[in-house]
Amino acid sequence: MKTLELLSAPSRGVRFEANAVIFTSAQSLETLNKLARGVTEVEGATAWWLGDIGLHIWKEKRVEYILANPAPELERATREQEAEDFANEYLRGRSEIVGCADGYWANCIALARFFPPDQRAKALTVHHHRAAMIGAGGQECHESKEARRVAASWLFKADEGQWSASELRRQISLSLATHNAPTAPAERNTYEPFDEADKWAMRHREETLNPDIAQKMLTRFQALIEFLDRLKSIAATATHP
Predict the structure, then answer these.
(1) Between helices 222-235 and 211-220, what is the axis angle to 10°?
(2) Fewer CB within 10 Å: N-end or C-end of the chain?
């Protein structure tokens, strides 16, 4: 609440508008730093807000579909999947109207689903929670009590050690890399660099990337992309008995 009060105090010579911050008087460096910190906190809060709102919309649309499409007991699983697809499609259609990128909103909803309000660490950022979710197996494990326990453990370690989100990601990556490490010498693996790249991609598959970063990554890994396209082309020519 203090953050919101700070950001909405025009009497201090700062006015926040939809597309700008207007300074009507000189500000001390201390105040400017506090404002920057406050904006960061609000930005993190909006991710949770979008997630919670989106999750409630998703639940409402899912129930709406089920009530409108009754099905026999044996077809319940199919209807459940159809209801979820219906809710997901509705949210995709709403994201543009709301003014939110579809992928970003979906990530916020996934995070809100994985971490109910009473399981969120107030002292940590939304980025900490996303890293912990991935370290616990990803959003697909949101119904697993064990996955949530693992995520909570990572959040506790981050809070206790005062880790940044990037440090938490590093610690999780180290843990995943050393988990169940073999004791016997491993046979030489010609494709080990690809295995490592695949592991990295699995660990970071939930992260949101902006278009600029995506373009830079495509340029940087062009040779790898071309090699994978060549693999697909060769695999397509395989004959099956």
Answers:
(1) 70
(2) C
User: 100-137 burial, b if ≥16 CB within 10 A, otherwise e?
Assistant: beeeebbbbbbbbbbbeeeebeeebbbbbbbbbbbbbb
Residue with tokens 């109207």: 97
The pair of three-digit structure tokens given for residue 63, joined into one six-digit string:
């129930």
Q: Rounded distance, CA 30 to CA 38, Å?
A: 12
Picking from 74, 50, 77, 79, the residue whose alpha carbon sits closest to that of residue 63 is 79
Q: Is the separation of the CB atoms in 130 and 119 below 8 Å?
A: no
* 171 exposure class (CB count in 10 Å sphere: 0-12, 13-18, 19+): middle
Residues 188-204 have pLDDT tens digits of 556 667 767 776 776 66
Angle at 70 (CA atoms; ends 64, 75), nearest 5 degrees: 115
Task: Kindly calculate the radius of gyration of the chain based on its CA atoms and give it in whole angstroms.
Answer: 23
Q: Which residues of the chain have pLDDT under 70?
A: 1-11, 73-74, 178-192, 195, 199, 202-206, 238-241
What is the token pair recorded at 57?
A: 């919309």
